[in-house]
Design goal:
two-stranded antiparallel sheet, 316 residues, alpha/beta, binds adenosine-5'-diphosphate, single chain, 2 domains, DNA polymerase, domain 1, binds magnesium ion, 13 helices, Rossmann fold
Length: 316
């Protein structure tokens, strides 16, 4: 049975060390690598790299499945409650694992509040809308690019469910990303951290701000989008390989017309053009009311949901 990377064919201690140093410390990380990457990282021939990757994929059961098997797997996927019944219903039950969910909307529309709430809610037991099992608590990673993370909010949100706030906070791994390269490096590093910690939710709040600041204007748009796509691809891999939920936020102006010339803004603002996932647009309404709408998700019904942001979190 293949349990660690040294169980893979042709991976002795020396090669294992090189792989670990290059960030390929787990079967999962190797299974999603390309032979070229792995060959360069470990200094081994391409054919050896191919053999190692093949064995890693077989060990993880990455193969053709029948549609019926897919159905059975999907029926078992659990969802994370947002704290609002209305919003959960709109999302077909909540936030799904193996998927990237993007919340986009103007400043103050509730993106960051939803992220905080989900980092708490993922820790609830399955029957209460979280992903914790009897013997393993589900944990969250919070990648903050704007410095808007507030532990005080987590306290209130944890108390709402009768959870111990300190315990809840000790299960949320926080990191401030200082620029887009750092942000991408953090996600690469997660391929090594996630399997050790039972992380079931990865949040990037916001996914776009560094990219926008570092690649301003029309002339940098292609480079920016290319790099962002690579980042999203890594996040999608992480979600798929480790059966976890990825939630990203993306701030867009209320008036897209002021962003003429920027296609990431002009078509409603979401960044998940090609990546699979669920896009949720948020709008401000009266007072603490917010309106959510799903954008081009063929498997979800059209419509809007109204939720509120309260002192104890996201609610109806
Ligand atoms: P963004 O979409 O910009 O990330 P936020 O998620 O930060 O927006 O939402 C900010 C809004 O959340 C504020 O305008 C406020 O209405 C609400 N909010 C923040 N903290 C609290 C709180 N402790 N009690 C009630 N509402 C709050
Ligand atoms: Mg925010």
């Amino acid at each position: 049975e293949i349990k660690s990377i040294t169980d893979l064919p042709g991976v002795g201690p020396a090669t294992a060390n090189k792989l670990i140093e290059a960030g390929y410390a787990t079967i999962e990380a190797i299974a999603v690598a390309t032979p070229q990457e792995l060959s360069a990282a470990a200094g081994i021939p391409l054919t050896a790299a191919q053999r190692i990757i093949k064995a890693a994929r077989e060990a993880l059961d990455i193969r053709f499945k029948t549609a019926l098997e897919v159905k059975k797997e999907r029926m078992q996927t659990r969802k994370i409650t947002t704290g609002s019944r209305n919003l959960d219903d709109l999302l077909g039950g909540g936030i799904e694992t193996k998927t990237i969910t993007e919340f986009f909307g103007e400043f103050g529309s509730g993106k960051t509040q939803i992220c905080h709430q989900l980092a708490v809610n993922v820790q609830l037991p399955i029957e209460k809308g979280g992903l914790s099992t009897q013997d393993r608590v589900a944990k969250a990673v919070y990648i903050d690019t704007e410095g808007t993370f507030r532990w005080e909010r987590l306290e209130n949100m944890a108390k709402r469910w009768g959870l111990d706030p300190d315990e809840v906070m000790s299960n949320i791994f926080y990191i401030r990303a200082i620029n887009s390269d750092h942000q991408m490096a953090i996600v690469d590093e997660l391929f090594n951290i996630v399997p050790k910690e039972n992380i079931k939710l990865v949040i990037v709040d916001s996914v776009t701000s560094h990219f926008r600041a570092e690649y301003p204007g029309r002339e940098n748009l292609a480079a920016r989008q290319q790099k962002l796509n690579r980042h999203l691809h890594q996040l999608a891999k992480l979600a798929e390989v480790y059966d976890l939920a990825v939630v990203i936020t993306n701030q867009v102006m209320a008036r897209p017309d002021v962003f003429y010339g920027d296609p990431t803004q002009a078509v409603g603002g979401h960044v998940l053009y090609h990546a699979p996932g669920v896009r949720v647009q948020l709008r401000k309404s009266r007072g603490n009311k917010r309106i959510a709408r799903i954008v081009d998700a063929p498997h979800l019904p059209e419509g809007e949901a109204v939720f509120v942001i309260t002192d104890y979190g996201i609610a109806d």
